[in-house]
Specification:
homodimer, 159 residues, alpha+beta, two-stranded antiparallel ribbon, DNA-binding
DNA sequence: ACAGCATTGCTGCGCCGCAACATAAAGGTC
DNA sequence: GACCTTTATGTTGCGGCGCAGCAATGCTGT
């Protein structure tokens, strides 16, 4: 599995550029429109490896021009999440740009550092298999698993 | 593992009585106080196998007497969750009485039926193992895993 | 009885999330 | 280009969620 916990001092701008390029390609392929507002929201999220609340996003988008209403941000977020470009962190009421090109549909494990707030994405076939087995033995037909784990990341553990 | 998806027509009062007895025993053993307010909240939650929002709980508690303020309910919920008697369903902003006597600390998998709203609790050592392995390979020290799966329960699937 | 602690009540507030409607922009058709 | 359809954005408004800060009350042990 690919564990993604980027170093605290890496180049965020580079991340954002990569994420935007990827988003562009995805939207072109699917015939979806990556509008200015959607791009702004994705840029803001990609420039941070911490999950951002909708109202934090509003503030950051407002720093570059007009202040969008909450609903505008939520609609952009709905689009981005539906395209798999952004994840929602349920336990934080916050959103996070998806960095991995993990296979769509595969369950993602979010590793949330309680100290620095960074969130890593992990994907594990073993987790998926054990979850499906557990659900099946309960007669349950699973759709979308949400897995969020609080803890301490490697960088903070050293400090 | 013990999958718990009670039949839709089972005896809720019985569940509630069992849950209350268990809570009483737990609190006596730990020297904690199961006050009237905390008991009321737990009764309300135990009488439903669907997760309830804080404001739904307020309404249900108010039906038996004075209407508590939101903060009062949240404090009771904080207590009950800290004692492992109630779980919080992050993806729903709602709370659920814990039915299983599952080992404290063990990760619980919530199976949330999109059709009837019922929530089953499952506990699986395999899931725990695979999650710990995934976290460890990312250099992550896990604390409290949150696992919530949407889908369709066995009862609704038949219908 | 008294001091110390836990619990509850009260006031107030900020964030989250979206419905309903109106407006503007992009794309397709003739 | 003129027109229409579809999609996205702006505006207004509202309700639920969650808790801080302080005051009052109740319980516990000596």
């Amino acid at each position: 599995m690919a564990a993604v916990f980027p170093a605290p001092d890496h180049d965020h701008d580079r991340c954002a550029a990569d994420a935007l390029a990827h988003a562009e390609a995805v939207c072109v392929k699917r015939g979806e429109r990556l509008t200015a507002m959607r791009r702004h929201v994705l840029e803001v999220l990609s420039s941070s490896h911490k999950p951002l609340g909708a109202y934090e996003i509003i503030d950051l988008v407002a720093a570059r021009g007009a202040r969008p209403a909450p609903i505008t941000i939520y609609r952009a977020l709905d689009f981005l999440t539906s395209q798999g470009l952004v994840h929602r962190i349920e336990s934080r009421n916050a959103f996070l740009a998806c960095i991995n090109n993990h296979a769509s549909g595969a369950p993602v494990v979010f590793l949330i550092c309680e100290h620095c707030g960074a969130v890593g994405e992990a994907a594990s076939g073993a987790v998926a298999d054990s979850l499906n087995a557990a659900a099946k033995s309960a007669g349950f037909t699973p759709k979308s698993p949400v897995i969020e784990i609080s803890g301490v990341c490697a960088h903070c553990r050293e400090a």
